[in-house]
Specification:
alpha+beta; six-stranded antiparallel beta sheet; 6 strands; about 90 residues
């Protein structure tokens, strides 16, 4: 039981520690990672595609906040990282 609670706490802290202010410049199949979809950001970072970003999306997330804001054309989409992680079975 302690391990589950501790791992949930660790995951939450990792999500809260993310700070990202960038733009999506490419979405591609990563041949080195079993052809999983990856997203490439304008700051040079790359990660597995966990949320349906689109090329041109601007992403903003402050450290300590669980909400990631996605600016797409004339709309702002709020992506709650805790809720997404719960849906994917990563948090309880």
């Amino acid at each position: 039981m302690y391990l589950i609670l501790n791992s949930n706490s660790d995951r939450k802290q990792k999500l809260l520690s993310i700070e990202r202010h960038t733009r999506v410049i490419d979405i591609y199949n990563n041949k080195h990672e079993h052809n999983f979809l990856y997203v490439k950001f304008s700051n040079g970072s790359q990660k597995i595609l966990e949320y349906p970003y689109r090329v041109g999306d601007s992403i903003s997330k402050k450290k300590g906040d669980s909400i990631e804001y996605i600016f797409r054309k004339d709309s702002i989409i709020e992506n709650n990282l805790f809720e997404e992680s719960r849906k994917n079975g990563l948090l309880e």
